[in-house]
Specification:
Helix content is 46%, strand content 19%. It has two domains: 204 residues, Metalloenzyme, LuxS/M16 peptidase-like (Cytochrome Bc1 Complex, Chain A, domain 1), CATH 3.30.830.10; 192 residues, 2-Layer Sandwich (Cytochrome Bc1 Complex, Chain A, domain 1). It is an alpha+beta fold.
Length: 420
């Protein structure tokens, strides 16, 4: 059961009541991320996320923050995406008040002292280095950079070394002032805490005055993303590639059919990609197709790690599976299996406090409304064979193909010919 309240300040509060759960997740989402940034401050949302952990009023040091959460066995973390940043604690329902206290102190009273800024700068630069040394993760970010081009949606949330290296405390404070406002935040408690208790606790702990956000997200401009290839030469044991296309916005009626299509192509172990490219041809160990959505666009992408000498073969194999679903369509059995798979994963998620807090608060933050688990399940059930085949014909065209790769040097003309 979802119970919501909007305060006079514009702050939106939610409680997802799961009466049988002994666990709660307290989550705060804020409209922030690369879509709110410029080239001059790229990565500032992520840097600011780190700084909230570095001490505030009640818990003045990073150690004090950590010890506070450890004292009640909580799991504490944060993340920065393209469209929002999130902060959460998952813990026993007995400790919900303490969890809210820690998050409130962080978000409202963080001091962001200059020595902590300097220390965290080094941490973030090492985080960048870690991802650069992990092409299995970096390839997805390279693909988004290629697909969306040189604009905020195409930028890595972590930013660039040059900008992060020069970020100042004053920039961080100004950015917090611009976006960490009540109208640009959603607070949620999901779990066994009764709704009135949860909402009252949040309201008392976040006594914010009405103040509007002064930055808006940059809309995606498809005219700025025209390149088909982004090949990065790096000495690796495998060649990592991401092959895919741009898709529909999350709220587009066709997006759910796109999700079903991605499952059929490579969403699980019985999918076409997994069975034909891994099991039958032994081309790879890891292969997966997924849809990632945003408010005004999305992507459908297959990622693969292969032996360097078989990289061209793998590119052709993925392309052939895309072409086959366009030319021959899907079977009724594949549709039934993919819908059942999505509904099954939905049921696994809906029992977890974290997933409830994230789903409901994100939808409210981005769209100002609610989409329940039942609403989403109904959309999946409504997808037809004709819907999936129409989406495949529209999205999976040679003109739309994009490929990012990390590994040994490949001949760009030869790779380009495979995408033609």
């Amino acid at each position: 059961m979802l119970v919501s309240r909007t305060l006079q300040s514009g702050l939106r509060l939610q409680c997802v009541h799961l009466p049988e759960s002994n666990v709660v997740t307290v989550m705060i989402l804020v409209g922030a991320g690369s879509r709110y940034e410029t080239k001059e401050n790229t990565g500032i949302s992520h840097f600011l996320e780190h700084m909230f952990f570095k001490g505030a009023k009640r818990y003045p040091t990073p150690q004090a923050v950590a010890e506070a959460v450890d004292s009640f066995g909580g799991e504490f973390n944060a993340f920065t995406g393209k469209e929002y940043a999130g902060y959460f604690i998952t813990c026993s329902g007995r400790s919900v008040g303490k969890a809210v206290e820690v998050l409130s102190d962080m978000l409202l009273h963080s001091t962001m002292q200059t020595p902590e800024v300097e220390r965290e700068r080094g941490v973030i630069l090492q985080e960048m280095a870690m991802y650069e040394d992990a092409p299995m993760y970096q390839i997805s970010w390279d693909f988004e950079q290629l697909l969306y081009g040189d604009q905020p949606l195409g930028w890595d949330q972590i930013g660039s070394k040059a900008v992060v290296g020069g970020m100042t405390r004053e920039q961080l404070l100004h950015y917090r002032e611009a976006l960490y406002t009540p109208d640009n935040m959603v607070l949620c408690i999901a779990g066994g805490t009764p709704p009135e208790e949860a909402l009252s606790l949040l309201e008392e702990s976040f006594p914010l005055e009405q103040r509007p956000a002064t930055l808006q997200p940059t809309r995606y401009n498809p005219a700025l993303s025209t390149k088909k290839l982004l090949l990065r030469h790096k000495k690796t044991e495998q060649y990592h590639l991401a092959f895919g296309v741009r898709g529909y916005a999350e709220t587009d009626p066709r997006y759910t059919a796109q999700e079903v299509l991605s499952v059929i192509l490579g969403g699980n172990m019985s999918s076409r990609m997994f069975q034909r490219i891994r099991e039958q041809r032994s081309l790879c160990y890891s292969i997966h197709t997924q849809s990632d959505e945003y408010t005004d666009t999305s992507l459908l992408c297959t990622t693969v790690g292969v032996a360097p000498e078989r990289a061209m073969e793998a590119i052709a194999a993925v392309r052939d599976e895309y072409a086959a679903v366009v030319e021959s369509g899907i079977t009724a059995a594949e549709l039934t299996k993919a819908r059942s798979y999505l509904l099954g994963t939905l049921d696994l998620k809906r029992d977890q406090p974290y997933n409830n807090a994230h789903r409901y608060s994100a939808y409210m933050l981005l769209y100002g409304t609610v989409q329940t688990w039942e609403d989403y399940a109904a959309k999946i059930d409504a997808v037809t064979q004709q819907d999936v085949e129409a989406v495949a014909r529209e999205l999976l065209t040679p003109e739309a193909y994009r490929l990012a790769g990390i590994g040994k040097a490949l001949e760009e003309d030869a790779v380009g010919a495979l995408l033609a």
